[in-house]
Amino acid sequence: MGEMREEEVEVAVKVVVVGNGAVGKSSMIQRYCKGIFTKDYKKTIGVDFLERQIEVGGEDVRLMLWDTAGQEEFDAITKAYYRGAQACVLAFSTVDRDSFDAIETWKRKVEDEVGEIAMVIVQNKIDLIDDAVVQMEEAEHLAKKLRLRFYRTSVKENLNVDEVFRYLADKYLEQLNNVVDEVPASPQKIGQGLMQTDSKNHSKDKSGKHKHEGKHKHDGTVSLQPSKRRTHGKKSLLASKCDLL
Fold this sequence. Notes:
Layout: E1 9-18, H1 25-34, E2 47-56, E3 59-68, H2 75-82, E4 87-93, H3 97-101, H4 103-114, E5 118-124, H5 136-146, E6 149-152, H6 161-182, H7 187-192, E7 202-204, E8 210-212, E9 215-216, E10 222-223, E11 228-230, E12 242-244
Parallel strand pairs: 1-3, 1-4, 4-5, 5-6
Antiparallel strand pairs: 1-11, 2-3, 2-12, 7-8, 9-10
């Protein structure tokens, strides 16, 4: 095969959206990928999946968004879907105090499975600010304590939803580039690890779909593998195409 052109390589980022039930996780993903808002609440059973392709700094990035159930009875199911995640949204609701108090627990649950990855805290439903049970200062203090970016969103009004996911894509690419810069120019390293883009970087689940996984060292540091796949010169005609599996 000839040498691949740069535009034939696509970065794929697995993003998990976590938080208590009814904070708006499903609505957020539906809004971002499909441009729709449904006010009727329907509990997520296990996980749902949507994806959207965007361009970040001249790079095609496919965001694979995993909407996970917020109820404890689904923990055993959802934990399995955290694996391989490269970014995470920690979501709580303006009108649900328990969901805010649970943010640190959700952060630990994800990091127990995947180590440190790009994360952001999202306060949803700010259109209901008159009924808020979480003070602005409290949320900002938590974000500062956890050293995470903080966004206030309204999925209903489509406020700051795009900004959340674009930030995570930027953050992941930044981390990815840092890892690439640190890789020694050793044939053995290159042959074994971070910059391979063939099938060795992609494991498959039981359904045959590809999973993109970073590697996590025992010392707690993260060794990210670029999730790039070949598009064989065929770029998507719809820059924001979304697919529901």
